[in-house]
Amino acid sequence: MSDVINIMHEKIPNQNILNVFGVSGEPILLPGGEGTCYRVGNVVFKPTNDTVKSSWIAEINNNLKSDKFRVPKSIHSKSGTWVFDGWTASEFLEGQHRRGQYAEAIKLSKVFHKALANIPKPEWFDKKTDVFAIADKIAWSELPLPNFEPTKEPLKKIFNLLKDNHLPNQLIHGDWGLNQILFHDTLPPAIIDVTPYFRPADYPIADMIISALDHEDADLSILDLGQDIADFNQLLLRALVFRTCTYVGFQTHPENNRDWTPEINCHLNLFDIIIKKL
C-alpha cells in the first residue's frame, strides 16, 4: 500500500543520476508497485523522499545472507551514499509475482522474519508521523481511535475484542504480500520493497490475509492458513484496524484530494465477516 497523500516525484532518472550510480542506458518503467521505479540494464532506480530510512534499509539488505530468499542489493553512488538526489539504485532480481501462493508466502515470511529478528529499532523510527505510522500506532493501542464518525462504533467493537499483546516486537516487512515476492523456478524467491515496522514476527501474515480478502478476492478459507500461528485472531484484528485507519488517515488528511469512502467501506464490511469467522 503506498502513501498516495505524500506522492514522491514521478520524474524519470536523468543521465546525471545514472552516471552517479555508474549506469548507462534507457530507463524503462517497471510495472506494478507505485509506478515510479525504472530499470536500466540490471539496475532498478527507485525514488525516495526519506533518505534516512532508505539508507537504513539498503544497509540491512546488503548485510542479509540466506540461501532461502533473495533481496535486492543496493548500489552506492560514486559519492558513497545510498541515495542521490532522491533516487536509490539496486540490482534487478529475476522472478514473477504469482497469484494465490499464500501458503508459500507464509512459509517464506517465517524464514525472512527470523533473519530480521535481531535488528535493533533505530532512534528515528518512533518519531514518524505519516499516515501509516499513525494507523500502526492506533492499531496497537498506542494512539486513540480516530475521530471519524463512520468508523467510531465498528472500531470500538473491534477494540472490545482485543487483548494486551505479549508477543515480542521485531523488525518486520509491514507490507508483506504476493506483490512483494518474486517467485522463480530455479532461484530462491526474492523479497522486495521492505516497509519497516516493529511488531510481532507473524503480524505481516495477518496483514497479508486482510489485504488478500479486501483487494485480491481471496476466499475466507484463507483464514485457515493461520490456524497454527500464536494469537493469530488478535493479529488479524489489529491488521484490520491498521488497514481501516490508514484509509481514514487518507480521507482526513489536509492534502487529500479524493474520496476514500469506498476503501473505508470495504474494510468496514470485513469487520463483521472476520468477527463471525473467528
What topology emerges from the helices and strands here?
Layout: H1 15-20, E1 28-29, E2 38-40, E3 43-47, H2 51-63, E4 83-84, E5 87-91, H3 102-116, H4 131-139, H5 149-159, E6 169-173, E7 181-182, E8 190-191, E9 196-200, H6 203-215, H7 232-252, H8 261-277
Antiparallel strand pairs: 1-2, 2-3, 3-5, 4-5, 6-9, 7-8
Helix pairs in contact: 3-6, 4-7, 5-7, 6-7, 7-8
What's the alpha carbon Rg, rounded to whole Å?
A: 19 Å
Kindly report the name of the CATH homologous superfamily of the largest domain.
Answer: Aminoglycoside phosphotransferase (APH), C-terminal lobe
H and E order: HEEEHEEHHHEEEEHHH
CATH architecture of the largest domain: Alpha-Beta Complex
Overall pLDDT score: 93
Strand runs, count: 9
Q: Which descriptor suits the 3D outline? A: globular
CATH names the topology of the largest domain as Aminoglycoside 3'-phosphotransferase, Chain: A, domain 2
CATH class of the largest domain: Alpha Beta
For the report, how would you describe the main beta sheet? Answer: 5 strands, antiparallel
In order across it, which strands form the biggest sheet? 1-2-3-5-4
| Helicity, as a percent range | 25-40%
**Structural class determined from secondary elements:** alpha+beta
Separation, N- and C-terminal Cα atoms = 25 Å
Q: What is the total domain count?
A: 2
Strand content: 5-15%
Q: Low-confidence runs (pLDDT<50, min 5 residues)?
A: 1-9
- Tally of helical segments: 8
Q: What can you see in these coordinates?
A:
- This protein has 278 residues and is of the alpha+beta class.
- The chain folds into two domains: 15-91, Phosphorylase Kinase, domain 1 (2-Layer Sandwich); 102-277, Alpha-Beta Complex (Aminoglycoside 3'-phosphotransferase, Chain: A, domain 2), CATH 3.90.1200.
- Helices cover 38% and strands 11% of the residues.
- The protein has eight helices and nine strands.
- It has helices spanning 15-20, 51-63, 102-116, 131-139, 149-159, 203-215, 232-252, 261-277, and strands at residues 28-29, 38-40, 43-47, 83-84, 87-91, 169-173, 181-182, 190-191, 196-200.
- The strands form three sheets. It has a five-stranded antiparallel beta sheet.
- The radius of gyration is 19 Å and the shape is globular.
- It starts with 14 loop residues before the first helix and ends with a helix.
